[in-house]
Amino acid sequence: MESINFSGKVALVTGAGSGIGQATAKAFAALNASVVVCDIDPAGGAETVEQIVLTGGEALFIKVDVSQSDQVQSMVTQTLDCYGRLDFACNNAGMGGVPAKTADCTEENWDRETGVMFKGVWLCMKYEIQQMLRQGGGNIVNTASVAGLVGYENTSPTLSACKFGVIGLTKTAALEYAQQNIRVNAVCPGTTLSQQIINVANQHPGLIESQEAIHPMGRLGQPAEIANAITWLCSDQSTFVTGSTLTVDGGYTAQ
């Protein structure tokens, strides 16, 4: 099997200032793609760009709130202004929801969290697909979650709602554009050891250990492991894969 080489290709990653998004941006760069690093946090985005450039890669940072249509449209326009094309998109931007049971979630939290984690994915797909149709094809990978496959209590109720929705969007778009050389897939990570998880764990001792215990492999995922799945889905090694949910969860949903 030939190794993956994205030389001459352009990849856009949202939520690329940390965690899975940062690892994915770096993975695309390591495979020789030019990378558009998108995040609402300029410091995190700049750090990702710096890490890519220091290893000889090519990267551009764009600040974006994915819940805002004009900013998402501008994100794609700036990508084209700089690189002239868009081959791969990983719609990964998310946020830590406010923990609450369904009846206790506030409308304010619901609107903000679904705006980023659900509407934001749709907005990104909307403008990415428009460009991919113009240029004759492309690949999109949406970051869903095991919380989009099974119920996930004691978190924000928006988490499962959004991630189930992302999987539905993924499958629908995959069907709509399957004959136009656009593949659309999703990854469903289990709990992954990101800085966000570490920050929460600092406030809740024992959290990481309890999460490790519910994953059959006895550990959490690493951001790079999720990134490897994303780049594979964008590669020519997966050309008959569309509308798929690739579960990367250490066996969590096999229980």
Provide the domain count.
Answer: 1
Distance between the termini: 32 Å
Q: By helix and strand content, what is the structural category?
A: alpha/beta
As a percent range, the share of strand residues is 15-25%
Compute the number of strand runs. 7
Fraction in helix:
40-55%
From the spread of the alpha carbons, the general shape counts as: globular
What topology, given as strand order, has the largest sheet?
3-2-1-4-5-6-7
Calculate the mean pLDDT score and round it.
Answer: 95
Give the topology.
Elements: E1 10-14, H1 19-30, E2 34-39, H2 42-54, E3 58-63, H3 69-83, E4 88-91, H4 107-135, E5 138-143, H5 157-177, E6 182-189, H6 195-203, H7 207-213, H8 223-234, E7 245-248
Parallel strand pairs: 1-2, 1-4, 2-3, 4-5, 5-6, 6-7
Helix pairs in contact: 1-2, 1-8, 3-4, 4-5
Structure summarized in a few sentences:
With 255 residues, this protein is α/β, with parallel strands linked by helices. The protein has eight helices and seven strands; from the N terminus they run βαβαβαβαβαβαααβ.
Task: Give structural notes.
The chain has 255 residues and is an alpha/beta fold. The chain has a single domain (10-191, 223-247), classed as NAD(P)-binding Rossmann-like Domain (Rossmann fold). The chain is 46% helix and 15% strand. The chain contains eight helices and seven strands; from the N terminus they run βαβαβαβαβαβαααβ. It has helices spanning 19-30, 42-54, 69-83, 107-135, 157-177, 195-203, 207-213, 223-234; strands spanning 10-14, 34-39, 58-63, 88-91, 138-143, 182-189, 245-248. It has a seven-stranded parallel β-sheet, with helices on both faces. The longest helix has 29 residues, at 107-135. It is globular, with a radius of gyration of 17 Å.
